[in-house]
Amino acid sequence: MIHTIIEPFRIKAVEPIRMSTRPEREGWLKAAKLNVFLLPAEHVLLDFLTDSGTGAMSARQWGALMEGDESYAGSQSFFRLEAVLKDLTGYQYVIPTHQGRAAERIFFSVATKKGDLVPNNTHFDTTRANLEYQGAEAVDLVIPEGLQPRTIHPFKGNIDLARVEDLLKREAHRIPFGMMTLTNNSGGGQPVSLANLRGYRELLNRYGKPLILDVCRYAENSMFIKLREEGQQDRSVKAIAQEIFSLADGCMMSAKKDGMVNIGGFLALNDARWVEAAKTLLILTEGFPTYGGLAGRDLEALAVGMEEGLDEDYLRYRLRTAEYMGEKLKAGNVAIVEPTGGHAVYLDAKDFLPHLGPGQYPAWSLANALYLEAGIRGVEIGSVMFGKRLEDGTETYSAMELVRLAFPRRMYTQSHFDYAAEAICELKARSHEVKGVKMVKQAKYLRHFTAEFEWT
Ligand code: F0G
Fold first, then answer.
1. Spacing, Cα 57 to ligand 1 middle (Å)
2. Residue-level pLDDT at 197
3. What pLDDT digit, counting tens, does each position of 324-345 carry?
4. Is beta strand 211-214 parallel, antiparallel or unpaired with respect to 137-140?
5. 337 and 274, same structural domain?
6. Counting atoms of ligand 1 from 1, which one is nearest the CA of 183?
7. How far apart are CA 119 and CA 115, in angstroms?
8. 99 CB near ligand 1 (under 6 Å)
């Protein structure tokens, strides 16, 4: 029996990546003010900044682009996409949007109001920000294991049903609907079990509340269910996904993830009242309801991508990639969030750089060091992203200091991952040499995108 899980594709078009030297990278990082967001992408060797919209499309998707019907109204491409999404989700209404956050903004504008509370396992940043923009409060209720980096649990993305019930008992009148994020990106790309979703559904039913899913990475979540949840092994991933959708009343999706496209998203719902208001807003800001801010060709690529994202050979390879990286890193004494999730590996920077205090931004420093060491770009999920400078000048710091290495879909091969793991383990062996940083310039909101730093 052969155990190696290979990339289930061969390569038809290649895109060169340029090797660079350490002195070159030192110059580029200095010019970028020690902020990897400010680096030109051509100066990055392996780009693990995000898995969102960065993957490779298939030959079938590139072929489908040519079929794009660019009619302003009633595009055939829309009807093809609608048929695929209705078959998968079972929802009656499909509204395309240019990406996930557009679906969020439109849905929250019609379905929430000031003072509302929305429970979720963990709201992604844009989800939280869009709710807060409406004056609503985003409540994160992931199970306690979901916040412990090294506690092993098969479904660390599960929501804490006891805390949901408690919230419903006290505040039902303020809760317009419940949400669940599949997989739980902010918690490490951890999956949610079917049992947990069923329990959540039952609980929300008792209070007459709808359930809305954030399904960016629903296919990865469904594969985790097939691999890990009792009694699910013999079902197809698509059947599992269909059950997930059937447990909810609608969903929002950034199709830049499991939709396997570079741009796109949608909102799918059953409730006609929400749909009418959502379409009105869509026309105001995104476009006519049969294209929603996308080109006809984007809709075609997405219709194909939604099917390819559910391919089980692909998903087995996809989940194995993160697991493989995790195994190699652990073998080199690199602490990571465990078990590995679907789309990324998270390095624990506090463990990696124990000599740096919170004011030296360990995760930010580690992201910089990885770039200098090997041309790898990851993203800090730590105090630069989640801390704040208060009015009186004092700084707040986040509990965890992580560097996320998120993997674009179908883009890098095993040797790229071998290279990355070797470089990170090598850096770990000399980690005491890594310097901390101090922040010398910052914006008031979302400061990580533009902040400037110097070495300490
Ligand atoms: N929900 C989740 C769980 C996400 O991970 C994202 C995006 C969004 C919503 C918003 O979708 O970017 O299409 O507007 N996550 C990206 C990331 C940006 O890097 O994790 P979008």
1. 19
2. 98
3. 999 999 999 999 999 999 999 9
4. unpaired
5. no
6. 3
7. 13
8. yes
User: In this predicted model, what pLDDT tens digit does every residue of 373-428 receive, in sequence order?
Assistant: 999 999 999 999 988 888 888 889 988 899 999 999 999 999 999 999 999 999 99
Q: Are residues 168 and 275 both part of a single domain?
A: yes
Do 128 and 174 belong together in one domain? yes
Atom of ligand 1 nearest to the CA of 184: 3
Mean model confidence pLDDT for the chain: 96
Q: For ligand 1, say whether the CB of 52 is within 6 Å of any of its atoms.
A: yes
Write out the residue range of the structural domain in which residue 390 sits: 22-51+311-455
Measure the CA angle with vertex 311, ends 60 and 409; round to 5°.
70
Ligand 1 neighbourhood includes 130 CB (under 6 angstroms)? no
Residue 445: pLDDT above 80?
no
**How far, in Å, CA of 26 to CA of 36, rounded?**
12
Torsion (CA) 366, 52, 257, 419 in degrees, nearest 10: -50
**pTM recorded for the entire structure:** 0.96
Is the confidence at residue 26, as pLDDT, over 90? yes
Q: How many angstroms does the Cα of residue 220 sit away from the middle of ligand 1?
A: 15
Q: Is the CB of 448 under 6 A from ligand 1?
A: no
For the Cβ of 194 lying below 6 angstroms from any atom of ligand 1, the answer is no
The average pLDDT across 267-277 equals 94
Nearest CA to 380 out of 44, 100, 48, 149 is that of 48
- The protein residue whose alpha carbon is closest to atom 8 in ligand 1 is 100
Q: How many domains does the chain have?
A: 2
